[in-house]
Amino acid sequence: YGGLLAAALIGGSVFAVYYFKKGKYSRTSLKRTAVGVSVLSLCVLVALGSGFLVFRDLNQYAESKDAYRDLAGYVEVPEQTASPESAPDPTEPKRDDADIVLPSVDFETLRENGPDIIGWLSLPDTVLNYPVTQTDNNEYYLNHLYDGTYNKVGCLFADYENRADFSDRNTIIYGHNMRDGSMFALLNRYDEQSYFDAHRQMYLVTPKGGYVMEIFAAFAAKPEESGSETSPWQLSWKDDGAYTTWLTAMKERSAVESDVTVTCSDKVLTLSTCTPGGTGRFLVMGKLVKVDNEI
């Protein structure tokens, strides 16, 4: 809308200067005058319409930012004790759960504000710190906030065919790639090895426990892939062998190198958003590792 507004203003200004200042108006016929006025009127209408849409979008961005900031007040995100810029040393022993401090989430209060909230997803040291919702379709939360307020920013939501406890082999969470950098916009940065190396893990907290999402793949895909055997949005497999084949295919598609191994006993969390321009999709996939300490 911003580009359309700029084009209307610039086009109308150039036309007005050429048509009137150059003396065209005084020498032209009534018919041509009417055409000129019509063109200028159209430019003005386009500018006004585009301006309204820009204002509406900015207003919704601001409203959503305030709403999510207020909700985040019920979530305590601990400070990181280690620098996120340094990749973990694969030769070091496996982490102790006692070293993992997950966000502390007051789900009782959260659900008073948004009854469809089933979890909280966060990426340390970034703006990705949002509730995850779920309802009986994959459309509602595309343009509604967690409390049901209409807003084009929407809310992160799990696929309606997934179980709400994240116990499926592949749970999918969808979110918009917003121009202001909110929601799932930063997922597209996972095509850079340096960004992946600095942000290898996310945290998922649910009412029944917490998980570390260990990222093993990130890549672009086409919506038309949905329904195929190699679709990243696949939710079921005929047997362990088919699931293992799928996991291998996902890891091989990755734009970044990850030392995380996945087997048929693992549960996967897939984060899905639009690529810039909106025609493609970008996915970040990780295995869910249960954290046994208190959350």
From TrEMBL:
**What InterPro entries does its record include?**
Sortase, Sortase_dom-sf, SrtB
Top-rank taxon: Bacteria
Q: What is its EC number?
A: 3.4.22.71
Question: Kind of enzyme, top EC level?
Answer: hydrolase
- The active site is formed by 176 (proton donor/acceptor), 274 (acyl-thioester intermediate)
Q: What Pfam families does its record include? A: Sortase
Kindly state which keywords UniProt assigns to this record, in alphabetical order. Hydrolase, Membrane, Transmembrane, Transmembrane helix
Q: List residues traversing the bilayer.
A: 32-55
Instruction: Give the Gene Ontology MF terms in alphabetical order.
Output: hydrolase activity
Q: Which protein is depicted?
A: Class B sortase
Please spell out the taxonomic lineage of the organism that makes this protein: Bacteria, Bacillati, Bacillota, Clostridia, Eubacteriales
